[in-house]
Amino acid sequence: MARYIGPKCKICRREGEKLFLRGSRCYTDKCSFIRRGYPPGMHGKVGRHKLTSYAIQLREKQKVKAVFGILERQFRKTFTEAVKRAGAPGENLLITLERRIDNVVYQLGIASSRIQARQFIKHGHIFIDGKKVDIPSFLVKVNQVITISDILKKNPLVKRAIEERDPEKIVDWLKFNNENFSGTVLRLPKREDITYPIQENLIVELYSK
Description:
Structural Genomics Hypothetical 15.5 Kd Protein In mrcA-pckA Intergenic Region, Chain A; alpha+beta; Ribosomal Protein S4 Delta 41, Chain A, domain 1; single chain; 2 domains; 209 residues
C-alpha cells in the first residue's frame, strides 16, 4: 500500500495547525511549524488565500487523514461503513478511527506517535488478548488487553515514550499498567473523548455532494 513518506512537518504547515505527527519533537522549538508557520512551497510566504466552502471541507478531510495516518481509499471505506450504522455518520467515523489499534497504542503512550505505533504493529510487537496483531486498522473491543513483546519492553524508544507520557492526557476509556506495559479497553470511545479540533460535519458535507 502507498504511504506518504515525505516530511511530516510539511503536512502541518499545509493545514495551518500542529497535528503532532512527530511525537515529542512537536513539543520542542525544533518543530518546523513553530519556525516556519507558513504553507510550504515557493509562494508560502505570500499568505493564505480565502478558501471556498469546498476547499474548507477538503482541507478538513485531509487533516483527519493526516492525523490518523490513512489514505483516501481506506478513509472513504471507513466513512461508507459509518454511514450504514445508526447514529451521526461523522461521529461514527471518528469513533471508528479512534478504535484503531495504532491509535490505541499511541493513546496508551507506548509509542510517541501513531506512525511509530504502526511500525511496532507491523513488526509483530503488539498483542491483543495474547494474540499477535499486525494490522494497524484492527478495531479494539471492550475488555481487550493490549500487550507488547519482551523485545519492545527493552526498546529505548518505548521507555522514552512512556517516561515522556503525560498521565493526564491518557483517555479515560483506556487504562495503562506501568508494571507490565499493558493496556486495557475499559469502554468504547465517545465523541466527547476526541478532544482534537475536528469538524466532522464538513467531511460529511464533502462526501454528500
